[in-house]
Write a structure and sequence with these properties.
The chain has helices at about 10-15, 25-35, 50-75, 85-95, 205-220, 225-235, 270-285, 315-335, 355-365; strands at about 105-115, 120-125, 130, 140-145, 150, 155-165, 185-190, 195-200, 245-250, 255-260, 290-295, 300-310, 350, 370-375, 380, 385-395. The protein is α+β, with helices and mostly antiparallel strands.
Length: about 400
């Protein structure tokens, strides 16, 4: 969740301290100081050469410094809540031994399937590319890390891959990586499972995300391990955001126990990622005395969705086909399958509104005349709704 800058009137604060914030205020202050010193100004007309000189060398520079430097820059950036300048925010983070997380490439495993039920050993060469269909104008690719042999008569094998570029947009859901642009001898198909990610792809941490982690560090400074401490530990991992860690405190395994549920903006955390986080917290000693914290994937519910789309009658057949494909990707974005649209995503302990999703679809795609959903809103508890099946029907067909 992005931080909203509060509406603090720094100009009023400066004025209340007796500092002028207008050119006329600086002229009056200068005049009062001169008169207090015993000098008498005979000609204070705005057309006086003397006052034009004062305006040029005193009033204008002083007013600029106060408004542009003090009010617009220095004062807001002294406080984490209102800071907008990256250098100031990073300096605040440094005070709590926090540095901005850098971008990172997604890594994981893609499954290669043999074309026949039996056969000889097959080589899947390093550098083999697996890609997606076009998603909102973008094709995503992952590349195999090294040579892998599919043993004789074995039907499938997990092959380690790395995203072509850094970024969280590569953390796509199950089934997106399924195209081999260049055929691999003996391989019939390829696919990524729901938990294919072992290292999350991540963008460079934004100012708002860094501010959230830094704010969390204020409460994490206590000597006892409370939520803020564990949240700070877990979100050191690139790709995990502060507001995507949820805690269960009710001693699920007895006194002193708690669970931390991890939610990703896209996709689902792999077993290896959860194992690494649990090992870091518990086995490597980053936990409180007597604490038993277990890191788990946020539970999910499996939803069957149906929607009828009525495209505008003026659209050509190929335009309707493209529209329905884009709508499919947009809905999957809302259910955390991709990150290629600005859609309200499903979250735990909330109501997912299909009327709001309809509004967002209308705003994104001008070719939609009407939308009719086959189901009502989804109310979730400690779980996140995910798509099991999605059926999109052309209402004009």
């Amino acid at each position: 969740m992005a931080l909203e800058n509060p509406n603090i009137d720094f100009k009023s604060i400066v004025e209340n301290a007796g500092i002028p914030t207008t050119e006329q205020g600086w002229k009056d202050l200068f005049k009062n100081d001169v008169e207090t010193a015993g000098s008498i100004i005979a000609n204070d007309s705005p057309f006086s050469p003397f006052w034009r000189l004062i305006t040029a060398i005193v009033a204008k520079p002083a007013n600029w410094i106060v408004n542009k430097v003090l009010i617009d820059t220095m004062l807001p950036n002294l406080f984490l809540q209102t800071a907008t300048d990256s250098a100031f925010i990073e300096a605040k983070a440094w005070e709590h031994d926090i540095t901005r997380k850098s971008e990172q490439a997604a890594q994981g495993h893609v499954v290669f399937y043999r074309a026949a039920s039996t056969g000889p050993s097959l080589l899947i060469a390093a550098g083999t590319v697996i890609q997606t269909d076009e998603i909102n104008g973008q094709v995503y690719r992952v590349i195999t890390n090294n040579d892998v042999i599919l043993p004789e008569n074995q039907l499938s094998i997990n092959v380690p891959v790395t995203a072509e570029f850094d970024g969280e947009d590569y953390n796509l859901g199950a089934g997106y990586y399924h195209i081999l642009p260049s055929a691999v001898t003996g391989i019939g198909s390829v696919n990524n499972d729901a938990d294919w990610l072992t290292t999350l792809g991540a963008n460079a941490e934004t100012n708002d995300e860094l501010k959230l982690r830094t704010r969390n560090a204020f409460t994490a400074a206590a000597p006892w391990h409370i939520d803020a401490v564990y949240r700070a530990i877990l979100t050191e991992q690139s790709g995990l955001n502060t507001d995507n860690v949820y805690f269960e405190h009710d001693a699920p395994r007895g006194p002193g126990t708690a669970n931390a549920f991890i939610l990703l903006d896209i996709g689902e955390p792999a077993a290896q990622l959860l194992s690494d986080l649990n090992d870091y917290v518990m086995a490597k000693g980053y936990h409180g005395h007597g604490d038993d914290l277990q890191v788990l994937a946020m539970p999910s519910t499996s939803e069957t969705l149906g929607v009828t789309i009525y495209p505008h009658n003026y659209l050509l057949a190929e335009e309707v086909t493209a529209l329905l494909a884009n709508i499919d990707d947009f809905i999957r974005c809302a259910f955390r399958k991709n990150n290629n649209y600005t859609a309200t995503k499903t979250t735990p302990n909330s109501r997912f509104s299909f009327s709001r999703l309809s509004q967002e679809l209308h705003r994104e795609f001008s070719g939609i005349d009407s939308i009719n959903w086959a189901q009502g809103d989804i109310t979730s508890a400690n779980s996140v709704p995910r798509i099991n099946t999605l059926t999109i029907t052309d209402g004009n067909a």
